[in-house]
Amino acid sequence: MNEDSERNALPTAAFASASSRPALELEHVSLELAGRTILSDVSLAIGQGEFVGVLGPNGAGKTTLMRAVLGLVPVAHGAIRIGGQAVARGNAAIGYMPQTRSALASRRVLGRDFVAMAADGHRWGLPIADSATRADVERVLELVGAGTLAARPLTELSGGERQRLLLAQCLLGRPRLLLLDEPLISLDPHHQRSVVELVRRVQRELGITVLFSAHELNPLLNAIDRVLYLGRGSAALGTVDEVITRPVLSRLYGSPIDVMRVNGRIFVMSGDVEVEKHDHEHEHDGGGSSHGHAHDHGHGHRHGPHGHGTSHGQTHDV
Ligand SMILES: Nc1ncnc2c1ncn2[C@@H]1O[C@H](COP(=O)(O)OP(=O)(O)OP(=O)(O)O)[C@@H](O)[C@H]1O
Ligand SMILES: [Mg+2]
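Above: inputs. Below: predicted complex with magnesium ion.
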């Protein structure tokens, strides 16, 4: 009986309404870039603690949506709310792993210092960490199981291991929402699986919400709660069975799409072409970068399992 009365004494109404607010809410949102509509009148709500896979062809707006949630792309119409709050730049409740992770592979810096740089807000500067920051760095390294890797320089780590450190960076400051833009790009299937499993484990352990964009659904199939599929300015949010269907995808692609299920894998086909694969074999340098945002926009260049590109001043993913 004491338990009950104690519980009643807590400000449960305020607490309940805070915790029942969606982690992310879009209300009639339109996004435009350089006069082009990227998303048009999209409304959706993602709950606290959901792991959502974000899919859609190249240029569908996955990156743009994440940047809008961060306040880096203005909302043309409608409203985006994060945990009930309006979008604001520098929102500490959000952790972000951008799609372009330039030239990390060539950095001599030690893994631990690399993570600490992000904590200090001096991403590419010298790590100057106070004790609270150092404790947070150790906490996130532990969370992603990178305590040992962190003693090695980035140059000596595999793409999958660097991805672990990037995830650690995103977890600094205890965000409640993670936006991970193409964490699987340029990883081989084995590393893809381990990154997905790692994110899933951390997401559950912390009870946080994750938006995880990817080119292919299959690596995410057993991990995600729901899928957010973007195409032609529209969005569909639901379980895999609700969204990965002929009518929904045909609408999003604007042409007839077939969905084939083989041995627990799903293939999204347009005629005899697998669209997810096909789209991303022709990655392009889209969208000018004249916006002067803090994070540059870029499209991943497809290359070998562990890209170590250094030439031509191009950006390369880890
Ligand atoms: N800064 C920009 N200025 C103008 N157009 C842009 C800009 N950034 C992106 N775009 C365009 O907006 C559209 C959506 O791009 P976005 O990068 O969000 O797509 P995406 O779904 O992330 O694609 P990908 O799978 O290739 O990463 C594309 O047509 C792109 O060319
Ligand atoms: Mg993108």
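The chain is about 30% helix and 25% strand.
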